[in-house]
């Protein structure tokens, strides 16, 4: 479809989405979608953005950001069809939120404050940000039966990321370990409880104790200043890299992964780790 001279990139995207959702002339698949049906695609696109960033691939990042933007446009179009809100309302809401959450940068009308009026201490800025978010949560939760000190943390987040956010929120109320070393002790305690549960042979107890262990590890990451999701992504990538190298080493020696016993695989694994260590030295 040719681009109209009056089209901006975003207005063209909005128009294309509206045409795809047209019940008579649009795409049958797009017309059939609902908010719930495209949630998996929305989450997938967010992860693909994160993956492009992790790989440092800016060309791919441009494309993945476009795919993620499409998800926002898709949701906004369905909301507009339902008479709830449109894309402009989404953009307006986030702009207002940015101004509201940055009183150290903007005045009430969204104008930049003079440099002399801006705090420069990151800790002070973060404390201000948290206070504003707490006020927003309190305002949203007025009269809601489910409102509580941990409300508002999205249930759709990956469990590890949500564990970090839950523990960070609780820590804001002073419910926290004093330091990372104390959390290490808690991780060891939870590991012992997993061992006991395994010995008991009760699957539900094992699942519960492993959940407690993972929650403790998420707390340890927070205390260490580490993003647990990013740490696990790196751990996944490391294992994937080493396992692939191990398989290649076995094949180079005339064997294969399916035909190798555990001792042979472990010997190749040790060599791969040693070689990685030598390269990093």
Structural write-up:
- With 281 residues, the chain is mostly helical.
- The protein contains 11 helices and no strands.
- Helix 8 (180-200) runs antiparallel to helix 9 (203-223) and helix 10 packs across helix 11 (262-280).
- The protein has helices at residues 9-20, 28-32, 35-55, 58-81, 87-100, 122-141, 159-172, 180-200, 203-223, 228-252, 262-280.
- It has 3 domains: 9-100, MazG-like (Helix Hairpins), CATH 1.10.287.1080; 159-226, MazG-like (Helix Hairpins, Orthogonal Bundle), CATH 1.10.287.1080; 230-280, no CATH class.
- The model has no long low-confidence stretch (mean pLDDT 90).
- GO terms for molecular function: nucleoside triphosphate diphosphatase activity.
- Residues 33-106, 182-242 form the NTP pyrophosphohydrolase MazG-like domain.
- Keywords: Hydrolase.
């Amino acid at each position: 479809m040719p681009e109209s001279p009056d089209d901006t990139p975003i207005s063209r995207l909005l128009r294309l989405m509206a045409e795809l959702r047209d019940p008579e002339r649009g795409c049958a698949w797009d017309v059939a979608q609902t908010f719930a049906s495209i949630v998996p695609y929305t989450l997938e696109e967010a992860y693909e953005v994160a993956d492009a960033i992790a790989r440092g691939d800016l060309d791919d990042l441009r494309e993945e950001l476009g795919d993620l933007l499409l998800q926002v446009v898709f949701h906004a179009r369905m909301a507009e069809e339902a008479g709830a809100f449109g894309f402009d309302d989404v953009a307006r809401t986030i702009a207002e939120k940015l101004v509201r959450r940055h009183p150290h940068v903007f005045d009430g009308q969204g104008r930049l404050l003079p440099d002399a009026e801006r705090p420069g201490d990151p800790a002070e800025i973060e404390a201000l940000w948290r206070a504003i978010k707490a006020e927003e949560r309190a305002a949203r939760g007025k009269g809601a039966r489910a409102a509580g000190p941990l409300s508002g943390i999205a249930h759709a987040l990956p469990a590890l990321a949500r564990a970090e956010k839950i523990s960070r929120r609780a820590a804001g109320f002073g419910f926290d370990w004093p330091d990372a070393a104390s959390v290490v002790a808690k991780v060891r305690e939870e590991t012992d409880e997993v061992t006991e549960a395994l010995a008991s042979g009760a699957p539900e107890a094992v699942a519960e104790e492993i959940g407690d262990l993972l929650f403790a590890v998420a707390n340890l990451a927070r205390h260490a200043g580490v993003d647990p999701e990013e740490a696990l992504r790196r751990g996944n990538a490391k294992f994937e890299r080493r396992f692939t190298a191990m398989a290649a080493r076995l094949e180079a020696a005339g064997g294969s992964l399916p035909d190798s016993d555990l001792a042979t695989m472990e010997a190749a694994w040790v060599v791969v780790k040693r070689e990685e260590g030598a390269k990093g030295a």
